[in-house]
Amino acid sequence: MAKIPILDFSVKAVSDNETRRELCKQVREACESHGCFLLTYDYETVSSKLCQDLFIAIKALFDLPQETKTKYVHPKPYRSYSGKNPMIPFYESFGLDDAHNLDQVQAFTNLMWPHGYPNFCETLHVMSSKMAELNFVVLKMIFESFGMEKHYESHIKESTSLIKVMKYMAPPKDSAIALSAHRDKNAITILCQNEVQGLEVETNDGEWASVVVPPNAFVVIVGEALKVWSNGRLEAVRHRVVISGKEDRYSCALFTMPKEESKIEVPCELVDKDHPLLYRPFIFSDYISYFVSKLTDDALEIYAAI
């Protein structure tokens, strides 16, 4: 089991000045040492009913006929319906840009349920908005920890989001790698899951360790865009999903990322004699195109390392 830091993001902890300063320090330390942490919250932040409704809605989505699910096709990578792939036979997913925009979620809902499913639309929209807000809180704390508060607003203006809903089918026997090892390419990810565990992270010694996520917690994961911005101080952790048992696993991840045309570069304030420049500037969409064409684990180092 991985000893991932568990950080309290209750309303009281985030709003109290003294507690917040300590939390900023803990967030940075977790992102530097582990590349991830568990974020616990209270009912005022996200209600248990909202989480329950979310996974009821996600299950209903994946229970739709295959011909309905395959109607969702998107020109960008990692958005279209993915399923029935012999390389990842226990995995299905949908990706939706800017799900905090109600019109976007409504259009997707109408495609899947032409006669309507208002509960799905409302639940996914509300949860997406709350997860995005939490991502912004985490990002702001990271900026504050570096003394870079003045850059936060411009950074957010250059950000967008992608939400993915995923199903990991219970394997017929033993256990199986349902989603292979990878590093997220975006800035920061927040992940919500049902009660079925399966997430694993790679430790500093190269071993795989299970992450047990409590019921009232999200997982926060650092992506490569944030690793570059921090000049390598923050770690983009490799992670995967291993599924076992008889129950299906459902999860929902909100990826905060730079807009396609945004330039990813290390601020001059984060370069000094102890931290020489590690990455050249690049356009985010150019790197994603490169990665999709190569699908190699060390794509970032090949593409942008100095």
Can you lay out the helices and strands and say which pair or pack?
Blueprint (H helix, E strand, L loop, with lengths): L5 E3 L2 H5 L1 H17 L2 E5 L7 H15 L3 H4 L21 E7 L4 H11 L5 H28 L6 H6 L1 E10 L6 E8 L5 E6 L5 E4 L5 E3 L6 E6 L1 H6 L9 E6 L4 E10 L4 E2 L17 E2 H11 L4 H6 L2
Helix pairs in contact: 2-6, 3-6, 5-6
Most strands sheet: 7 strands, mixed
Gyration radius from CA atoms, angstroms: 19 Å
Number of strands: 13
Q: Main sheet: which strands, in order across?
A: 1-2-9-6-11-4-3
Question: Which runs of at least 5 residues are low in confidence (pLDDT < 50)?
Answer: none
Distance between the termini: 35 Å
What structural category do the secondary elements indicate?
Answer: alpha+beta
- Element order, helices and strands? EHHEHHEHHHEEEEEEHEEEEHH
Residue-averaged pLDDT: 95
Number of helices: 10
Beta strand %: 15-25%
Helix coverage percent of residues?
25-40%
Task: Give the overall shape.
Answer: globular
Q: Could you provide a short overview of the structure?
A:
With 306 residues, the chain is of the alpha+beta class. The chain contains 10 helices and 13 strands. Strand 7 and strand 8 form a beta hairpin.
Explain this structure:
This protein has 306 residues and is an alpha+beta fold. It is built from ten helices and 13 strands. It has helices at 11-15, 17-33, 48-62, 66-69, 102-112, 118-145, 152-157, 224-229, 284-294, 299-304; strands at residues 6-8, 36-40, 91-97, 159-168, 175-182, 188-193, 199-202, 208-210, 217-222, 239-244, 249-258, 263-264, 282-283. The strands form three sheets. The protein has a seven-stranded mixed beta sheet. The chain has a four-stranded antiparallel beta sheet with strand order 5-10-7-8, with no helix packed on it. It has a two-stranded antiparallel ribbon with strand order 12-13. Helix 2 (17-33) crosses helix 6. The longest helix has 28 residues, at 118-145. The model has no long low-confidence stretch (mean pLDDT 95).
